[in-house]
């Protein structure tokens, strides 16, 4: 009898601890749970279950945008593949700061299209800083058919990010240390979706040390804007980011295809009276595209494919963009019907830069891919850096390509249809272009090093030290084509250690009990 009691006692100890070791169960798709904390930076709201994450959406939908409120995720969360309702919409956007603390949200799934589709539907910096940081998202967005919105926005992190320009002293939305392992598929689209690996549309924001590993695919009968990071952006800064995802788009309609490793479409906001020209620039710096990017038009329409940026919104004449120290390694292809009369544009940095009034500078950028091609259509324009950089009517000294390096020989030109003002600038710029595989390899290594240093700096590590402590924050893997990784948070290591200690104590207790029992029996 005593032996039976001992066995029962040991079993109870083991099964009591199973939930502790197994972690939280997958979400049931409906439950919501109040979260602790006061929402300040010192005492943030704590999110450690899917039900608490879903509660944020309920609070925001009820009219509280959580402006200036802080959230921290303290455990990995499994959404269980259940249909996720995005947090925030046009009427009630999310305006808080969500810190994943190096944790993961897995089982993320959306199959129903809304105007703003993502983990967060719409994020707005409404006076206080807003954004997301230190988070990995695993899952999929798989949608067939269009909704009623003319331009739905789809991204793993957020459908749309904006800044409330009506608020004096406004701050940007900020996104750092995010990895998306979310595949995005949009089928049978009749509207004009803006879709990206992280954001559908993003305006007036800063994005640093982020990685997209998800593949993106869309087929449409309308204009396509599809990017590894975003479908469309206005006045943003991207630094130290990497796209590893494959981006594929096609259209059967009468409007074009615009796709890229980073941003499909660049556009510009209305000029504010008190701002300088330098304040109006978007910046893409120290970024890499490793993904294969392919766009196809079955109708007689233009296709623009870029390793970094696809095309520019020509209805807006105040486009401002600087692309600096960026690298393309990916295969790029723009394809049209044979015999078509529209152009196809494809370039390692920019597919097409057509706007006579755009201010566009591409500086110190590198292409190591020899597989860049335009197929079909009228005079396919394929180049190592820019498929077309042509604007004879642009103001003088408002655009240019300088210090470009290509690993391919000059049979793949740095730029096609290169025409900038003043006239003597054309030859001056071309004198800085280099076709040299060894030089391209060396420059690519430099860019990867800059990204690694940026990641360390963001995570508070002294980049001048040779021996850096491990496990102090998220870092981006830029040395290979493998997905970027986020290192476990310090709390994760502690939890694993605590679990091991408890397991040892349980085993010891069982052993002692059995020994005592044997002595009693003897």
In whole angstroms, how far apart are the ends? 14 Å
Q: Can you summarize the main beta sheet?
A: 24 strands, parallel
Proportion of helical residues: 10-25%
**DSSP, total strands:** 40
Helix/strand-derived class?
A: alpha/beta
Q: Count the helices. How many?
A: 5
- Rounded radius of gyration (Å): 26 Å
The low-pLDDT segments are 4-23, 463-502
Mean pLDDT: 83
What would the principal axes of the Cα set say about the shape?
A: globular
Percentage beta strand: 35-45%
Give an overview in words.
The chain is 18% helix and 35% strand. The protein contains 5 helices and 40 strands. It is globular and about 65 Å long.
What are its keywords?
522 residues, alpha/beta, 24-stranded parallel β-sheet, 18% helix, globular
SSE diagram, text form:
Elements: H1 2-22, E1 45-47, H2 50-61, E2 70-73, E3 77-78, E4 97-110, E5 116-117, E6 120-125, E7 130-144, E8 153-155, E9 158-163, E10 173-189, E11 194-196, E12 199-203, E13 205-208, E14 211-212, E15 216-220, E16 224-227, E17 230-234, E18 237-239, E19 242-243, E20 247-251, E21 257-260, E22 263-267, E23 282-285, E24 288-289, E25 293-297, E26 303-306, E27 309-312, E28 320-324, E29 327-328, E30 332-336, E31 344-347, E32 350-353, E33 359-363, E34 366-367, E35 372-375, E36 381-383, E37 386-389, E38 399-402, E39 405-406, H3 423-430, E40 434-435, H4 437-458, H5 490-521
Parallel strand pairs: 1-2, 2-4, 3-4, 4-7, 5-8, 6-9, 7-10, 8-11, 9-12, 10-13, 10-14, 10-15, 11-16, 12-17, 13-18, 14-19, 15-20, 16-21, 17-22, 18-23, 19-24, 20-25, 21-26, 22-27, 23-28, 24-29, 25-30, 26-31, 28-33, 29-34, 30-35, 31-36, 32-37, 33-38, 34-39, 39-40
Helix pairs in contact: 1-5
């Amino acid at each position: 009898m005593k032996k039976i009691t001992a066995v029962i006692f040991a079993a109870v100890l083991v099964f009591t601890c199973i939930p502790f070791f197994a972690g939280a169960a997958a979400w049931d798709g409906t439950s919501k749970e109040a979260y602790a904390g006061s929402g300040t930076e010192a005492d943030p709201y704590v999110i450690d279950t899917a039900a608490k994450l879903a509660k944020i959406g309920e609070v925001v939908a009820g009219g509280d945008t959580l402006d200036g409120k802080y959230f921290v995720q303290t455990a990995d969360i499994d959404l269980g593949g259940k249909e996720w309702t995005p947090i925030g919409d046009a009427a009630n956007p999310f305006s808080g700061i969500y810190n994943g603390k190096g944790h993961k949200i897995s089982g993320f799934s959306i199959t129903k299209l809304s105007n703003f589709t993502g983990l967060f539907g719409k994020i707005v910096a409404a006076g206080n800083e807003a954004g997301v940081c230190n988070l990995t998202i695993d899952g999929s967005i798989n949608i067939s058919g269009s909704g009623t919105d003319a331009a739905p926005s789809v991204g793993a992190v957020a459908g749309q990010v904006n800044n409330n320009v009506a608020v004096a002293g406004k701050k940007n939305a900020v996104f750092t240390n995010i990895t998306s392992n979310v595949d995005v598929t949009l089928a049978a689209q009749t509207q004009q979706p803006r879709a990206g690996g992280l954001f559908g549309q993003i305006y007036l924001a800063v994005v640093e040390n982020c990685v997209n590993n998800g593949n993106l695919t869309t087929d449409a009968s309308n204009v396509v804007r599809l990017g590894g990071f975003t479908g469309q952006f206005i006045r943003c800064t991207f630094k130290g980011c990497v796209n590893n995802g494959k981006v594929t788009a096609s259209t059967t309609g009468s409007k074009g295809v615009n796709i890229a490793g980073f941003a499909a479409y660049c556009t510009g906001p209305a000029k504010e009276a008190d701002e300088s020209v330098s304040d109006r620039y978007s910046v893409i710096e120290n970024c890499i595209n490793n993904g294969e990017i392919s766009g196809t038009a079955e109708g007689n329409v233009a296709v623009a494919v870029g390793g970094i940026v696809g095309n520019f919104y020509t209805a807006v004449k105040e486009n401002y963009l600087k692309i600096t120290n960026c690298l393309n390694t990916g295969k790029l292809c723009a394809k049209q019907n044979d015999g078509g009369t529209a152009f196809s544009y494809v370039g390692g940095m920019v597919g097409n830069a057509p706007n006579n009034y755009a201010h566009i500078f591409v500086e110190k950028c590198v292409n190591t891919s020899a597989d860049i091609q335009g197929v079909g259509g009228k005079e396919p324009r394929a180049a190592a850096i820019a498929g077309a950089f042509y604007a004879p009517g642009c103001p003088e000294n408002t655009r240019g390509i300088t210090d470009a390096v290509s690993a391919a020989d000059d049979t793949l030109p740095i730029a096609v249809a290169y025409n900038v003002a003043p006239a003597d600038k054309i030859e001056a710029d071309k004198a800085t272009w280099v076709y040299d595989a060894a030089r391209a390899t060396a420059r690519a290594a430099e860019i990867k090093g800059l990204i690694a240093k940026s990641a360390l700096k963001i995570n508070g590590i002294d980049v001048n030290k040779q021996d850096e402590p491990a496990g102090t924050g998220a870092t981006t893997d830029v040395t290979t084509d493998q997905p970027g990784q986020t290192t476990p948070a310090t709390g994760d290591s502690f939890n694993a250690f605590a679990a091991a200690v408890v397991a040892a104590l349980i085993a010891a207790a069982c052993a002692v009990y059995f020994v005592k029992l044997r002595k009693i029996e003897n």
